[in-house]
Here is the input.
Amino acid sequence: MVMIMRIMKFGGASVATAESFHRIAEIILQQTDEEIVVVVSAMGQTTDELLTLAKKVHPEPPRRELDMLVSVGERISIALLAMALSKQGRDAVSFTGSQSGIITCTNHSQANIIELRPKRVREALEKKKVAIVAGFQGVSKLGEITTLGRGGSDTSAVALAVALGADAVHFYKDVEGIYTADPKTHADAQLVSEMSYEEALELTKKGAKILHPRAIELARKNGVQLYVRTFKKDSQIGTVVGKGVLRNAVIEYEGEN
Ligand code: ASP
Ligand code: MG
Here is the structure.
C-alpha cells in the first residue's frame, strides 16, 4: 500500500512563543495524510541569542563548539512541539539531525548534506507517530554535530523529502506566500500563485527571504515541489514553486564543500 506522506516545515517566526506550539500542533492535526514529518527551526531569535552568548565567552569560538551550541535551538523546538502534540493526544517523536541520519561534510557552521539515512524517522512513521526533525543540523561521518549555515532548516526539509520519496514540502510562514515584493514594506506587492525554481531563485538573489536558495536548488535538482502558505490562519496554498515538475529517480544531495 502506498502511504501518503506530508513534509511540513515551520520556521522560527511560527514558534516564537510557548503558545505558538499549540497553534502549530493544531495545523498538524488538521492534516489527513497517513505519514507526517515536521521540520522545525529554533524559536524566534534563539539562534542569534546563542551566537551572542558564545561571543561573550570567546570572540572567535571554535567552530565545532559553536555548532554544539547553536544546534540546541532546534532541539528545544522539536521537544516542545512533540509535547504540544502529545497534549492534544497525538503520538509524536522528536529527532535531532543526527538521529534523523542527516549526514554532512565536516565543514562546521556551513556543512553540506551529503547523504541521508532516515531509518529512525521511517520507523516512527511506521508506528503512526508524527516524526519531528530538528532543522539546520546534521552529523559528520566522524560523528560530530554540524550545522548547515543560517536559514538551513529549509534545506533540511527538502533533503528529507528527497530521501523519503515525498513529492513536496509545505512551508508555513508569517506571510501568505511569495510576493512580487516584500508585503511588509510594499502595500502593492502581489501574491504569486505559481513560479518556477528559477524564478524563485531569482527572487532570493534580489533579497527575498521567503525560501533559502540552497533549499530551492536542492528541490530543483530532485523535482520536489515547494508550497508556501501562512501559519497565521487556515488558508489555501499561497504559492507553489515547481508545480508539475516530476520527482527525479536519481537522488542528488549537495555534495562535499
Ligand atoms: N535557526 C537557524 C537560523 O536562524 C536555522 C533556520 O532558522 O533555518 O539560521
Ligand atoms: Mg532561525
User: Anything to note?
Assistant: The CA atoms of residues 179 and 191 lie 4 Å apart. The chain has a mean pLDDT of 95. The chain has one domain: 5-241.
